[in-house]
Amino acid sequence: MADPTLPAPWNLGGSGSVAAAWVKGDKTGWIQMSRNWGANWQALAGLTGQGLSFAVTSTGGQYMQFLNVVPGWWTFGQTFANNDQNFAY
Known about the structure:
Layout: E1 4-5, E2 18-25, E3 30-32, E4 34-37, E5 40-44, E6 52-58, E7 63-70
Antiparallel strand pairs: 1-5, 2-3, 2-6, 4-5, 6-7
């Protein structure tokens, strides 16, 4: 069974809310995610044990990749942040 990965991207620094989201595992290409509810996005893909990168497009039209945000040893319920990358205006 595939593990559901449900990230909740937030705080896009005034660029708007998330319009589209993708996840990439160490062993996969970019997988488009679907909105589950609210700010939660899901990728029904087997990503357990892989480091994860994310990409989002804001409702303002800006695209940003967040590479290697989550290490391969992650477990469900953990929170990871990336403070080094911001949308450009």
